[in-house]
Fold:
Amino acid sequence: MKSADPFEVTEDEQPGWARLVLRGRITVACAEPLRATALGLATGDRSVRVCCGAVEVLDAAGLQVLLCLGRELIGHGLKFDVTDVPAALADVFRLAGAGTEG
Structure:
């Protein structure tokens, strides 16, 4: 993954979990690579924690990818958490029905 990408997958400190770290602008411009990454995570055997602490902008395309990832994981009996959501984006996640942790 290029260092300019606004996301990366890392190991989570909790066994059985992957961490999808988002940063900067998550927009339609990066939706396709984010979708490809999300599809890879959804076909795995780990739950996924999405860390949004460094997100500046999240548009509808980025939100849709995350919601689809969550639906796929839950459908396969895995878990999906969204953490560190900036206050400016909290309402977006709440209105979309995505549970978040502080």
Remarks:
- Residues 7-101 form a domain with the Transcription Regulator spoIIAA fold (CATH 3.30.750.24).
- The chain has a mean pLDDT of 89.
- The two ends are 28 Å apart (CA to CA).
- The chain has one domain: 7-101.
